[in-house]
Design brief:
27% of the residues lie in helices and 21% in strands. The longest helix has 17 residues. Helix 5 packs across helix 6. It has a single domain, classed as Alpha/Beta hydrolase fold, catalytic domain (Rossmann fold, 3-Layer(aba) Sandwich), CATH 3.40.50.1820. Strand 9 and strand 10 form a beta hairpin. The structure holds alpha-D-glucopyranuronic acid (GCU). Alpha-D-glucopyranuronic acid binds next to loops. GO terms for molecular function: carboxylic ester hydrolase activity.
Length: 372
Amino acid sequence: MPGLCAASRARVLSELAGSLYGPVPRPPDALEVSCQPWTGSHALWLRITARVGTGAFTVDAALWLPSGPGPAPLIAGLDFLGPVGMSADPGFPLDPDAVVSPRPDLGAADGRLRDAMRGASTYRWPRDLLLRRGYALLLSCYGSWVPDDPQAWRAHGVKPLIDPDGPSGAISLWAWALMRLLDVAEKWPEIDAGRMTVAGHSRLGKAALWAAAQDGRIRGVYANQSGCAGAALSRHPEGETLAQLADRFPHWLCPDPVTDPGALPMDQDRLIAACAPRGVYLAAAAGDGWADPAGSYRALQMAARAWPDAHIDTPPEIALRPDQPILSGPLGWHLRPGGHEMLPQDWVRVLNWLDRLSPASEDARDHRGRAG
Ligand code: GCU
């Protein structure tokens, strides 16, 4: 059987939950979706309500569907601005409860979504390219699910709904959010539930990997410059350290995470390996040493043994040169010139990888993350 055996994967998930992220909470008791056109962006505006006991929480998302016959493969993601960043059209609401951490030039010192952010992240999710290549895109704002703020995150969204006093950090809760997007997508007639990919940039790449390690419905994960607590080895002495991350973003991890690399039960290569047999694509940038390209490539090489049909044997001296993309079986890698961003040129390569991925088989889809 490809991938880690069930017992090994369970051990990896439990060790990573215990030492770093806290567990991904159980699915909600119910999930309801309403839908209306967002004509200004040729999209559907979805309102998703998750219910747990007597509690409920409602969040917005947008879905773009390609034209053409047959159900489409899906790319689902959380974004720093969400659908608001995808169009200048004011038809999508600004969530007053969202707390986000967008680029400083967007002037959001208080972390609140505002009109100036409309259309500011279209380059991160090149919708027309994705649609032209036949992919549907489902996006939501990460800060609506879990406010990205060490004070505010407990007050709104997923945390108070399902884990008020529990150990799950925001990365786990964003992974939970991605799984809810898949709950919605897998029932959508125009979406091919066997071909659902999750994607994310940076902190949201960390969450995408953690979701892909848990949820058998995912066919592939694209983690862009996910760095520390993402694809980069914690024991590799470059880039951000766990201690720095835990200090600046205490809400991202479980309470009292293990930040001494020597004391970790395992390194991040196991997180990547736990995604097998699903596809994994990692992208890095030459100017983004903080996200540790070399430590991420090494982790991918170490993890690759979990895929019998992948061989990541390109020496690092070559793989870490700009524009030497690698595709092997369900795995992919590239490093491009430039800095910390997710760009259309990254997506061009990612789509080449995605086009080759075979659908998640019914057998592989164990539905562990599905809402009841
Ligand atoms: C900070 C943080 C990183 C994170 C990044 C981002 O730089 O230190 O761990 O990946 O923000 O999400 O953009």
